[in-house]
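Record 1 of the preview.
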Amino acid sequence: MDFNHKKRIQIRFGDIDIMGHVNNGVQLSYLDLGRLDYFEQVYGQTIDWNDAALIVAHLEIDYLSPILLKDKIEVHTCIHKIGTKSVSMTQNIVDIATGEIKTRTNQVMVAYSQKFGESIEVPETLKIRIREFEEATIG
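->
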């Protein structure tokens, strides 16, 4: 899978658990940083999510290899499918030096209206911008 978006992550000492690895929960915050940066890059600006948002409805995660304090990592993000009310996203946490995928995820994000408190259709503008950004990777 090709990834048009990569976000460098700085590992902090406080991210490390008693085993000397980046804590599983902390890795979720890395994914959040990658996801936020992805949408800002797709839109070309900071997004105001108060009216409508994409929220994570389903997350599959495989912790393939421990991430250590000295590792240099990036979160690779892509959307590979756009539905009527949802998008499917893949994110990997990758060791920059080796190319090894340390953590692999697949997610389904649902379009959600904060105003009405319910799911909505993915805004057409967002669909267009995602397709332009992803080009050939969307199926």
